[in-house]
Amino acid sequence: MNAPKSTAPGRRAPHRLDPTGPCPHAVNARLLAEGAVTPVLLPGDIDGMAVLGHDALRDFLSHPDVAKGPQHFTALSEGRIPDGWPLRTFATLPGMMTADGADHRRLRALVSSAFTARRVEELRPRVATVAAGLLDGLAEAAERGDGVADLRRHYALPLPLGVICELLGVDRAHQDRLHELSALVVATDIGPDRAVAVNRELLELLTAIAAAKAADPRDDLTSALIAARDEDGDRLGPHELIGTLLLLIVAGHETTLNLVTNAVRALCSHRDQLALVLDGRASWSDVVEETLRWDSPVSYFPFRYPTRDLTVDGTLIPRGTPVLAGYAAAGRDTKAHGPDADRFDLTRTATVKHLSLGHGPHYCLGAPLARMEAAVALETLFTRFPGLDLAVPESELPRHSGFVGNSVRTLPVRPGG
After folding, report:
1. I need a surface site. Which of 10, 27, 199, 200 has the fewest CB within 10 A?
2. Which of the four CATH numbers 3.40.1080.10, 1.20.1420.20, 3.40.50.300, 1.10.630.10 does domain 15-414 have?
């Protein structure tokens, strides 16, 4: 690994982000001790910043002089970001994730008209049914594996992936490949040639899915997005539609996958907290919220750009700098969550809400779905297998590939009776 760039006297040295994605919490604690905002080196030695402190991140996410549009990314505008850059999709994907102002409100309104709270609540019985069926598969896998099965593979992944694909009307035959491609899109340790190939294949697959829905509309979200119009009669453009589908598929299952995985790890490592829920002294919703704070499913989320030189918590962020939202760090910020912020505690009397699902105009549109899915998944799992436990020490679990997502690649468990 290359050494960090030299810095001027008195200026904070940039933190080189590890593209392989080790556990972020120890590094975050060290960086937070030095300040709420830190310079970072992104892949390819691109200069960036990360906002780690809770209060600083909350203010930054809603600041009127902070934008998401790629035209504000100085290095991209200057041609210094190659096509195979592993984070390029986050910067250039057409749709809500890279839109600002009126354009963002237009796109969000079009998606919201099809992605309603009613649709989410109507999915609850279906989520419970799917979860119960997947537990049959988990038990069978454990029988074949001397009592051990990978919960991430057999439960935490297929539940949200199946739900979002069902909501979008995506054929089951495409689901495994969509996950494989989605995981590679958010990975930060992927080579440039493969990154280009992955993005090309994913866009081609989503274009084919959209074309099939346009030719034969059904009662699903993709068909609704194709048909949806705003009050001025505008539809989603072709590139906006594909970008929206990609965002919904990736965010609609990767985040919940990590959330469920991290919650199970937390409960298995804190049996006293699990006992509180099983005894009715805490709720599954409490588990979801504390996991979101304590072990956010997203570590560093790209990108936002100041549209002018901006001082955040005493640190200058130059105009056009790519800034990462440090959700995992903010969740354990002792200034916001108290001196025991690194403790998993379902009885915590939170006076400050976590930011793990965003804040401001780009607050996660799928937050109600993620919360519902995770709560149902955890209740169904531990109701059937209250003695479920990790099959290996947590320190031996292989980490997620990349510094965007925050979780482990596998979660071997012993379901028990």
Report:
1. 10
2. 1.10.630.10
Report d(CA 342, CA 107) in Å as an integer.
Answer: 37
pLDDT of 212 higher than 50: yes
Question: At residue 8, does pLDDT exceed 50?
Answer: no
**What type of residue sits at position 187?**
A
| Residue 257, H or E segment | helix 238-269
Query: H helices within 270-310, ranges in order?
Result: 271-278, 284-294
Confidence (pLDDT) at 236: 79
Look at residue 309 in the predicted model and tell me its pLDDT: 98
Element (H, E) at 39: strand 37-42
Element (H, E) at 186: helix 175-186
Residue 228, number of CB atoms within 10 A of its CB: 19
Distance CA 18, CA 15 (A): 9
Nearest to 318 by CA among 35, 46, 48, 10: 48
Return the amino acid letter for 350: A
Sheet strands side by side (includes 149-150) = 149-150, 412-414, 389-390
Closest CA to 416 of 393, 394, 386, 392: 386
Cα of first residue to Cα of last residue in the chain, in angstroms, is 46
d(CA 44, CA 127): 41
Least confident of 135-144, 236-245, 293-302: 236-245
State if pTM tops 0.85.
yes
- Mean pLDDT (the chain) is 92
pLDDT of residue 9: 46
Alpha carbons 348 and 27: distance in angstroms, whole number = 24
Whether residue 318 has pLDDT greater than 90: yes
Q: Is the pLDDT of residue 310 over 60?
A: yes
CA dihedral 188, 192, 195, 200 (to 10 degrees): 160
Would you call 149 helix, strand, or coil by DSSP? strand
Compute the residue count for the chain: 417
Question: Which pair of tokens denotes residue 330?
Answer: 């903010």
Q: Which helix (H) or strand (E) holds 97?
A: none
